[in-house]
Design goal:
Distance between the termini of chain B: 28 Å
Structural class of chain B: mainly alpha
Largest interface: A-B, 22 and 19 residues
Largest sheet of chain B: 2 strands, antiparallel
Strand order of the largest sheet of chain A: 5-6-7-3-8-9
CATH topology of chain A: Rossmann fold
Number of strands of chain A: 9
Helix content of chain A: 25-40%
Distance between the termini of chain A: 38 Å
Number of helices of chain B: 5
Order of helices and strands of chain A: EEEHEHEHHHEHEHEEHH
CATH class of the largest domain in chain B: Mainly Alpha
Radius of gyration of chain A: 17 Å
Oligomer: heterodimer
Structural class of chain A: alpha/beta
Strand content of chain A: 25-35%
Strand content of chain B: 5-15%
Number of domains of chain A: 1
Largest sheet of chain A: 6 strands, mixed
CATH architecture of the largest domain in chain B: Orthogonal Bundle
């Protein structure tokens, strides 16, 4: 199987602070991966490196065998942890904007999902609630036919019903040609849709395992194990 | 019948159990086509690969079979389904005994309690 995302001795340093301390990682297509770790463990840093928003201090990160850049952006669909869209645009304008921007964007699917979640497409982004804004962003990101989805805290601000719908969306958009990486704290909500989990702590990977292996070997859920490993 | 999962056991094993119950109760009748992995994964909110694993295992146990082009079907062997039903009934009975033993009841006492409960049920 081919790795869509690969890290080799990946280090990221901010001044004296080492955010990532030599990560080695390989993510294959066809998998849904949970990137789990406490606040400040390096999850967002890793995702930003994969998007080429920041560059490695040393080591390398490869998307489909190449360093992040123009080519990788065509195949990576990224949901940042904060809003980056123009607040004055309406939802419909945003859909058209994405349609112009990405070849692999399915505007029809996006509008259908907006309708399902009760998002009014004539509304400007700035007039939407925090949760609705998150829904809009996630729908835009999931409406691309990408090979790698990087979702940084995708369900943090939405209500449980919308959360279910979003997880359904992720499962039904799933295909063997794409990998989905979800970084989140809300482990019990996403646990059942994950193939594998990566526990990251203080810039290092402390565990990679399949969800069912954890349950089989530890007799507890990933959520339970997380609470044990990262007990404060 | 909704899909629910406990925290202490693998999800694929729980999927297998719940699919078995659906076969026994006739939601998926013998010889009928099963929903696709993707549809059922979406319905149960689980990873498609996990559902695939449950299907593969059920196939190994002879409860599902694949027809080369048209998908997966429930076994037509009703004897096999009956056997599965009995296995499940035995398991439930054993887990009742185990729970009662934890409360300090012997098997004989537990049987007596069941008989009493059955009588009371009839009286109502």
């Amino acid at each position: 199987m081919s790795a869509i995302l690969e890290c080799r001795n990946l280090v990221k340093q901010y001044g004296y602070f080492q955010a990532l301390k030599g990560i080695n990682l390989s993510i294959e297509k066809g998998k849904i991966i949970g990137l789990l770790g406490p606040n400040g463990s390096g999850k967002s840093t890793l995702i930003k490196l994969a998007n080429g928003l920041i560059t490695p201090t040393s080591g390398e990160i490869l998307i489909d065998g190449k360093a992040p850049g123009e080519e990788s952006k065509k195949i990576v669909s990224y949901l940042p942890d904060k809003n980056y869209l123009n607040e004055w645009m309406t939802v419909e304008q945003l859909v058209r904007f994405f349609h112009d921007f990405y070849e692999d964007f399915d505007a029809h699917a996006a509008l259908e999902m907006m309708a399902r979640l009760g998002v009014r497409t004539g509304d400007r982004l700035k007039n939407l609630s925090k949760g609705t804004k998150e829904k809009v962003q996630l729908i835009l990101v999931m409406s691309r036919k990408a090979q790698l989805y990087l979702l940084d805290e995708p369900i943090g601000g939405v209500d449980p019903a919308a959360r279910d719908y979003i997880l359904h969306t992720i499962i039904s958009n799933y295909n063997e040609e794409a990998a989905v990486v979800i970084s989140t704290h809300l482990i019990s909500d996403v646990e059942s849709i994950l193939d594998e989990v990566i526990f990251i702590s203080q810039g290092e990977i402390v565990l990679t395992s399949s969800v069912d292996d954890i349950r089989e070997q530890q007799d507890q859920s990933v959520d339970g194990l997380f609470r044990e490993v990262f007990k404060c | 019948m909704g899909w629910t999962f406990q925290n202490d056991r693998p999800i694929y094993a729980q999927l297998m159990e719940q699919i078995k119950r659906r076969i026994i109760s006739g939601i998926y009748p013998p010889g009928e086509k099963m929903p696709s992995v993707r549809d059922l994964a979406s319905e149960a909110s689980v990873n498609p690969n996990t559902m695939q694993r449950a299907f593969a295992q059920l196939e190994q146990e002879g409860l599902l079979y694949t027809q080369r082009t048209s998908g997966r079907y429930v076994t037509e062997d009703e004897g096999r389904i009956l056997q599965m039903k009995e296995d499940l009934a035995k398991e439930l009975t054993e887990s009742y005994f185990a729970a009662m033993e934890q409360l300090g009841y012997s098997r004989v006492q537990a049987v007596k309690l069941i008989a009493e409960a059955e009588k009371e049920g009839k009286a109502l």
